[in-house]
Amino acid sequence: MLPDIQHAIRLQVLDDRIGSLQKEIAELPKHIAEIEKKLDSHQRRLDVDRAALAANLKDRKRLEGEIQVNEQKISKLKTQMMDAKTNDQYRAFQHEIDFCQSEISRCETEILELMTQSEPLEKNVKAAEAALAIEKKQVEAEKKQAQEKTAADRNEIAGLNQERGGIAKEMSPKAFSEYERIRKGRAGVAIAEAVNGRCSKCNIQLRPQFLQELKRGDEWMYCESCKRILYYNPPQSFDDLVPQSVRG
To answer: What is the four-CA torsion angle of 238, 240, 241, 244, rounded to 10 degrees?
Structure first.
């Protein structure tokens, strides 16, 4: 196999890994944005429950205030009733007292209803606050992991690019230029192995004569379909795979 072909194979391995790492780096911010969006949604839901609970408590205090006002009115009316001069005045005071008592009864009924409504609201708020606290810690932990992973990926990319630069210098300028041209025009994949008589990338069946020439490995050859550089990696024999000491 030509040295430039061997170098191109190694370059493709490095470029595949670099591409995978770059994709991972690009996806991490999206993942963080998604979990932060979910966290914001839970926070808004908690805010709604808190607002509903606050409104419930406000209404109860308002009704308690109305009860207090009506109780004070009743007390004054009863005092005034004692000074009534006529039956009509007495009945008028009694009518006002009855009205105040009915208002107190109405307020007490509404307070009971609000208290019934507040119980599940309080439970929801407490449960949501606890869950949100846990979720915030998880999000912060994931963000930290993402930052650490991104840093590690970038360090690995730097090392791979350094190795890539060394390999590029060992290739002939024409071979490296050809590799780069095809890689950029074929979705990052410049070279493919011929496996079972087919191009491993586009799966086209290779012509028998073409395959025989490819197996010689003495020139650069290209897939007649996808135009990528093709190489043939002959299978290893048993003698090549098994050490001499094992073969006896």
So the answer is: 100
Q: Residue 113 belongs to what H/E stretch?
A: helix 87-170
Domains of the chain: 14-170 (1.10.287.1490), 173-240 (no CATH)
What is the value of pTM for the model shown? 0.66
Residue 236: pLDDT band with limits 50, 70, 90: low
Q: How far is CA 152 from the centre of its chain?
A: 20
Q: CA 201, 202, 205, 210 torsion: positive or negative?
A: negative
Does residue 59 carry a pLDDT above 60? Answer: yes
Q: H-helix or E-strand containing 139?
A: helix 87-170
**Cα–Cα distance measured from residue 81 to residue 74, given in angstroms and rounded to the nearest whole number:** 10
Sign of CA dihedral 76, 79, 84, 90: positive
Per the listing, tokens 């996808």 go with 226
**pLDDT band for position 111 (cuts 50, 70, 90):** very high
| Local structure of 198: helix, strand or coil | strand
